[in-house]
Automatic annotation (TrEMBL):
Transmembrane segments: none
Protein name, UniProt field: Glycosyltransferase
Pfam families: UDPGT
Single annotated GO MF: coniferyl-alcohol glucosyltransferase activity
Upper classification of the organism: Eukaryota, Viridiplantae, Streptophyta, Embryophyta, Tracheophyta
EC number in record: 2.4.1.-
InterPro entries linked to this entry: UDP_glucos_trans, UDP_glycos_trans_CS
Protein keywords: Glycosyltransferase, Transferase
Amino acid sequence: MEATKPHIALLASPGMGHLIPVLELAKRLVSHQSSKVTVFIVATDHASIVSSQLLQPPAGSDGDDLLVVLLPFIDISDMVGSGVSYVRKIEATMLRSVLFFRIEISKMESRPTALVVDMFGTDALGVADEFNMLKFVFVTSNAWFFAYALHTTEIDIKEIDEHVKNRKPLKIPGCRPVMFEDTNETLLNYPNDPSYERFKDIFIKMSLTDGILMNTWDELEPTSLKALRDTRKVPIYPIGPLVRPIEKSVLCSGIMNWLNKQPEESVIYVSFGSGGTLSIQQVIELSWGLELSQQRFLWVIRPPTEKDAAGAFLTLTNGSDGNLDYLPDGFLARTHDRGLVVPMWAPQVEVLNHPSIGGFLTHCGWNSTLESIANGVPMIAWPLYAEQKMNANMLTEDIGASIQAAAMESDGLVTRGEIRSMIRKILVDHEGRNIRARIKELKNSAAKALAEGGSSYNILFQLAEICIQHLN
Ligand code: UDP
């Protein structure tokens, strides 16, 4: 008789930073834990997701155990108006998606026993209650960020004032404190930001679930994970690092062919995630820094932006067609024998896995960070927004996997001289040798956590077991 398979539903909110780890979790539940999984995806662009390799069933499975349901995306731009943060827009979209999600669940003949949502999907947890499903939240970030975010929704206004107005570090029980410079936008705008109350609501809902999954692992964050387990009732499940596997089909692309011609660990890869942009002055400094470093580079470039009075990003140059006129005169010609500039997007996991890559200048999005660690690539941390400054601080000060710009100019510009010396330090200089050695240890630690019998592997197994018990 076939063993009972748990059926688990996953709900992914818009944005590659959420979709990629949610799909990776789905595939691991299918391939390693023999679960049946239905993934519900809320996304702006169904066509590009369907045409990508992202929805391919995991290797070795026949595809029947992984079902994907694309939910309609309601464009809420007109309703919320301009000047509303990206996060707020995702939340509003997700709130409107709950109805469609509920309809799909109610129609299912074999209903899932558990629901996993990401941090923006907590409104859907009511559907899990209605249909007697276990409920979990997948924090696609790390334990330190989660502990911080949770703590900020519980503390006294006076403590927030001390931190924001008097710039005192924010103490989080059992964890490293958060420096004022690394605080994310929600707290900085408190108490005037309406999203603070919304945040509170999300974290209350999260605390009442059957568990919090995180894209981290025990050996990477022992202190924060212990603090959470010691102080929280809700079970904590570190299941990472969940990183998208290599797609063989892109290995023969133009970028990969160029990398094939470069010596081992000689190239700095520069990318600011799926949406990060720089000002025009910063793009110019970065170009000069790359040129002056005299090192090889692969730069995924986006047209520069400036913020308008309301804080929204405006694209200065129409560069989405690949026009690179905003780069310094002659930059491309002077660096063509050792640099490749790629507009908008590169196959990042495959790039980081290539033997020629020796360093990653990154915005420290958590997926990019994990992809770098999993491939043993040391980082230059260049955080832009959201929790990226905390990630950069953790990587540089705590874990020893990156360096960070030491002297930010008063206008926030990182100078060409500093960029040049950071690139040389991470790739070639003697000073960077400890970081290069440390990242190899972390790569092994990440692989061990996910291998059979490793900490994250065992926790995923435990989750599948809990779902089976709920069935009976
Ligand atoms: N990514 C990619 N190519 C790019 C830019 C991004 O494949 O040119 C992928 C990257 O590998 C990662 C995700 O998009 O998996 C970005 O997630 P992250 O959390 O790093 O940053 P975000 O884009 O959410 O700020």
